[in-house]
Design a protein that fits this description.
60s Ribosomal Protein L30, Chain: A; binds zinc ion; two-stranded antiparallel ribbon; alpha+beta; 5-stranded mixed β-sheet; about 190 residues; about 25% helix; single chain
Length: about 190
């Protein structure tokens, strides 16, 4: 019979070097993570959302391609495994990441998740943008994200909303995104 996990001994879930990383032997079966990201919008820049280029007069000011929901998703995946955030792994001062396709960043984060013995159960993404309406694009966004994560489409949710003209997103000064993920252990 499988020994029940004792939630009162969290120290055993970490390696002896004290790095705070999860040790495989006693790692929890499930881990949850959330991520949030914002980018300012400016005229004449490309607007890339979940790997899909959106027709619009404005795009994101960013060191990378400014794919806000993919950054939130990376942060959610990293957060689920307590691996820090996207800025720690891909510094925005680094020339290596200037203008980089965020799908490449997401691929690298997925490798980290896999290396630590976890896989995605599901991801739920909410994009907040006043204009244009993203509903015509959300199916393509889901397909793009599922393709990068190499998972079934049913595991990826992409939703879009506005803030009814309130706040910085409502004034069309920026775009923001939330992502929530659940991971499960893929190895003993
Ligand atoms: Zn970002």
């Amino acid at each position: 019979m499988k020994k029940p996990e004792n939630i009162m001994t969290p120290a055993k879930e970490h390696d002896s070097a004290g790095s705070g990383e999860i040790a495989a032997a006693s790692a929890p079966q499930y881990r949850i993570g959330n991520g949030y990201d914002v980018h300012a919008l400016a005229k004449g820049l490309p607007l890339i959302v979940c790997g899909v280029e959106i027709e619009h007069s404005k795009g994101c000011i960013a060191h990378s391609d400014g794919d806000t929901p993919l950054h939130a998703l990376c942060d959610a995946l990293l957060g689920a495994l307590a691996l820090g955030d996207i800025g720690k792994h891909f510094p925005d001062k680094s020339e290596e990441y200037r203008g980089i396709d965020s799908k490449i960043l997401l691929t690298k984060v997925c490798e980290m998740v896999k290396d630590r013995g976890y896989r995605l159960v599901n991801a739920d993404i909410t994009i907040i943008l006043q204009s244009p309406r993203l509903s015509p694009y959300t199916d393509r966004m889901r397909q793009t994200v599922a393709g990068v994560l190499n998972c079934d489409l049913s595991r990826i949710s992409v939703k879009a909303t506005t803030t009814e003209h309130l706040g910085f997103t409502g004034r069309e000064e920026g775009i923001s995104a939330f992502a929530t993920v659940l991971l499960e252990r893929s190895s003993a």
